[in-house]
Amino acid sequence: MRYSFLSILANGLNGQSDWKPAWRDAAPKPSYDVVIVGGGGHGLATAYYLAKVHGIHNVAVIEKGYIGSGNAGRNTTIIRSNYLLPGNEPFYEWSMKLWEGLEQELNYNAMVSQRGILNLYHSDAQRDAYARRGNAMRLAGADSELLDKRQVRAMYPFLDFDNARFPIQGGLLQHRAGTARHDAVVWGYARAADTLGVDIVQNCEVTGFLREGGNIVGVETTRGAIRAGKVALAVAGSSSRVAEKAGLRLPIESHVLQAFVSEGLKPVIDGVITFGAGHFYISQSDKGGLVFGGDIDGYNSYAQRGNLPVIEDVAEGGMALMPRIGRLRLLRMWGGIMDMSMDGSPIIDRAPVPGLYLNAGWCYGGFKATPASGWCFAHLIARDEPHAVAGAYRLDRFRSGHLIDEKGVGAQPNLH
Amino acid sequence: MRIPCPYCGERDAHEFSYLGDATLVRPDPAAVDAQDSALADRFHDYVYLRDNPAGAHREWWYHANGCRQWVRVTRDTRNHAIAGASLAREPGDAA
Ligand SMILES: Cc1cc2nc3c(=O)[nH]c(=O)nc-3n(C[C@H](O)[C@H](O)[C@H](O)COP(=O)(O)OP(=O)(O)OC[C@H]3O[C@@H](n4cnc5c(N)ncnc54)[C@H](O)[C@@H]3O)c2cc1C
Ligand SMILES: [Zn+2]
C-alpha cells in the first residue's frame, strides 16, 4: 500500500482497519542470489538498492534478532557531511544527498530534519582547522559556513561563551546536516525492500559459512543452511565475530558507546551542537528529550552497556558547554557495540575469500552513512567493483599504508 | 567496573587507562631479513589485526592513579567479569 494523505484519511474513516504489516516476516528459502547478514540500516539499505538500482531481487536479509535491534536503533541520529579528507567527504556528501530525497524515494516518513550542525571552536588553531575543513567540504559540493562568536551567540545565547578554560570563539555550521528518526529509517528501507521482493528473515543467526572449494557459497544459520551466489556482511559491532567464522581476522576492535536522553522539555535546542574542547554533542528530539553523548568507554566490549567513568566525563563536557543542563534529570541511557576500525574509517570491500563481501568498521558514525553505505555496497556486490565515492574504503589499506586518518583516532583508546 | 590491581587491590576502573590486547607479540626485526615482505606482513598483523573475542580477553590496563604499574587483566568482554590480574613484569598467566 502506498502511504499518502488519502490513505490516512480513508483509514481514519474506517477505524484504522486497513493498515497492512509494512513488510513480510519471511521464512528463509533454500537459496538466494545474495544473502545479506545483518538487518540494521546498512544491510536493509543494501538490499533495497540491490533490488532498485541493480535489478537483483532474489535477496535475503538475515537478522539474528529483530531488524533495527542493533546500532540502528541505538544511535543519536545525527546526519552530516562535514568531513575533511578526500576519501571521506564525497562519500558522506553522497549520503547527505540521498537523505535529502529519502522519504520520497521510500514513501516513508523518516523524519529527516535538516536542522543544522554546529561544531564549536575554542582557539585560533581550532578555527583554522575548521576553516580548512569547511573549505574541503565546499570543494566536495557540500555546504559550510564559518561563524564567529557573535553569530554563534545569536543562535545559542545560553552557551558558556566565557568559560575560563574553553571560551567559545565561533563554530563551523553545516546547515544541511541534522537528524533523522533512526527506527523509521530501518522500517522505511525494510518496507521498500520487501515491496521489491527482498526476504527479511528475523530471529535467524548466521553461525557459519557454506564452502565449496575455497569459495563461500552460503551461510549456516539457526534456521538451517541457506545457499547464496554472494554473501555480504553488514553486522556492525559483530564484524569480527562473524568474519572469524570465515577465517578472517579484521583490523577492528569492538567497543561500547553510550548515549543519554533527558526528561522532556519545551524546545530549547533547535539544531545539533558539538563541543570542541571535549567529546560532547547534543540535540533535542521531537519528543522534547535532550539527546546527548560523548566518547566510547575505551575498552573492548560486547556488553551493550557501559560504565560510570564515561557517564561522568560526558556530564562534565555538557556542563562546560551549557551549564543550564545541570538541573535536568536523566531519563534513560544505553549502549551499543561499535566496530572500531584501526584508523576510524569504514571498510566496504570484497573479503579475501571469494564469494564474501564486507561492510564494517563504521565506528560511532555509521548512521549518517546508511544510505550511501547501502548504495555503494550494493554497487560493489552487483558489479564486483567499488563505487567511485567509496573507493578508499579498502580492507588492504592498512597493509599498503593508505589509511584514512580523518581524526587520528580509531580504536586506540589513548588517542581519544 | 572494578579492576583487581595485584599491588593496590580492587580499584575503580576510572583509575586505569587501557591499552588493549595483551597477547600480541611484537615481531623481532632481527629475526628476519628486513627486506623480507614476511616481516612487513607480521608488523601489519601486529599493529592492525585483532582477535577481538566475545568472551575471555587478556588486556593491558595501566594503573595511572594508583601504583603506576601495568596490569595484565583477563576480562570477559560480554559482561566485564574479571577472571584474574597479574603485574606485567611477572610473566605468565593472568587467569
Ligand atoms: C550510542 C550510539 C550513538 C550513535 N550515534 C550516531 C550518530 O549520531 N550518528 C551516526 O552517524 N552514527 C551514530 N552511531 C553509529 C551507528 O549507529 C552505527 O555505525 C550504524 O548503525 C551501524 O550500521 P547498522 O545500522 O547496519 O548496524 P546494526 O543496526 O548494528 O546492524 C547490524 C545487525 O547485524 C545483526 N547481526 C550481528 N551478528 C549477526 C549474525 N551472526 N547473524 C545475523 N545477524 C547478525 C545485529 O543483530 C544487528 O541488527 C551511534 C552508535 C551508538 C551505539
Ligand atoms: Zn595498582
Automatic annotation (TrEMBL), chain A:
UniProt keyword terms in alphabetical order: Cytoplasm, FAD, Flavoprotein, FMN, Nucleotide-binding, Oxidoreductase
InterPro entries: FAD-dep_OxRdtase, FAD/NAD-bd_sf, Rhodanese-like_dom, SoxB
The protein's required cofactors: FMN; FAD
Keyword Acetylation: no
Catalytic activity line of the entry: sarcosine + O2 + H2O = formaldehyde + glycine + H2O2; sarcosine + (6S)-5,6,7,8-tetrahydrofolate + O2 = (6R)-5,10-methylene-5,6,7,8-tetrahydrofolate + glycine + H2O2
UniProt keyword DNA-binding, yes or no: no
Family to which this protein belongs: Belongs to the SoxB family.
Protein known as: Sarcosine oxidase subunit beta
Automatic annotation (TrEMBL), chain B:
UniProt keyword annotation of Mitochondrion present: no
GO molecular function, one term: sarcosine oxidase activity
EC number: 1.5.3.1
Domain of life: Bacteria
Signal peptide interval: none
Keywords, comma-separated and alphabetical: Oxidoreductase
UniProt feature coiled coil, ranges: none
A Gene Ontology biological process term: tetrahydrofolate metabolic process
Protein name per the record: Sarcosine oxidase subunit delta
Protein's organism: Starkeya nomas
Lineage of origin: Bacteria, Pseudomonadati, Pseudomonadota, Alphaproteobacteria, Hyphomicrobiales
